[in-house]
UniProtKB/TrEMBL annotation:
Gene designation per UniProt: COX2
One Gene Ontology term, aspect cellular component: mitochondrial inner membrane
Reaction equation(s) it catalyzes: 4 Fe(II)-[cytochrome c] + O2 + 8 H(+)(in) = 4 Fe(III)-[cytochrome c] + 2 H2O + 4 H(+)(out)
Topology of the protein relative to the lipid bilayer: Multi-pass membrane protein
Protein name, entry field: Cytochrome c oxidase subunit 2
First-listed, main subcellular location of the protein, grouped into a coarse class: membrane
PROSITE patterns membership: COX2 (PS00078), COX2_CUA (PS50857), COX2_TM (PS50999)
Alphabetical UniProt keywords: Copper, Electron transport, Magnesium, Membrane, Metal-binding, Mitochondrion, Mitochondrion inner membrane, Respiratory chain, Translocase, Transmembrane, Transmembrane helix, Transport
């Protein structure tokens, strides 16, 4: 069954993903306007009987199509740089640290600072959600900043959660980090996004976000 939006971006569950969707919609609007303008002039040139080749060599026209792209790029630079610095922001105070280790072909998790959590998370082959559920979910507090430290024990992996706007490579011998926050109590699904071997498609990621009071009770 087909649903409207099923081939679009996932619903945002973090501030970062919200800003990514806003920027995507803004960029698409600018692209559609440019395509309409260029398409109109292309049709005009192809089918107009009053078209004169001297228009192309006109200094005013050349100035307009040189300055106009510069103006468009200026309007795209600010939201792009803002989003880039928002994603790279690492000075936020976080409640706890989630350590993530990629293996062939499962994920290991350990949480410090809040819960004594240390689990291995394998794909649940019997789940109704095909290839997207695990036997042991990682439970994290919602509406709280969490620092994730990611590495790999063997080959390249990538810890990706599209609804959070998260995609971080797990590299052997290297530690990557970022800070994320799940805005709502929800179950967040993701997958490894780096081809890591024959069972690359069978190492899903599932986070379950619940309220902090529920975790501590």
């Amino acid at each position: 069954m087909m649903f409207w939006g099923m081939y679009s971006l996932q619903d945002a569950l973090s501030v970062t993903m919200e800003q990514i969707i806003y920027f995507h919609d803004y960029l698409m609007m600018v692209m559609i306007i440019i395509m309409c303008i260029v398409g109109y002039f292309l049709v005009f040139v192809l089918f107009s009987k009053t078209y004169s080749s001297s228009i192309v060599a006109d200094h005013l026209v050349e100035s307009v199509w040189t300055i106009l792209p510069i103006v468009v790029l200026i309007f795209l630079v600010y939201p792009s740089i803002y989003l880039l610095y928002l994603i790279d922001e690492s000075s936020v105070e976080f409640l706890c640290t989630l350590k993530v280790i990629g293996h062939q072909w499962y994920w290991s998790y350990k949480m410090d600072g809040l819960l004594n959590l240390e689990i291995d998370s394998y794909m649940d082959a019997d789940s109704a959600v095909r290839l997207m559920d695990v036997d042991t979910r990682v439970v994290v507090p919602s509406q709280e900043h969490i620092r994730a430290l990611i590495t790999s024990s063997d080959v390249l992996h990538s810890w990706a959660l599209p609804s959070l706007g998260v995609k971080m490579d797990a590299i052997p011998g290297r530690l990557n980090q970022f800070v994320f926050m799940v805005m709502l109590n929800s179950v967040v699904h993701g997958q490894c996004s780096e081809i890591c071997g024959v069972n690359h498609s069978f190492m899903p990621i599932v986070l379950e976000a619940v309220s902090l009071s529920y975790l501590l009770c």
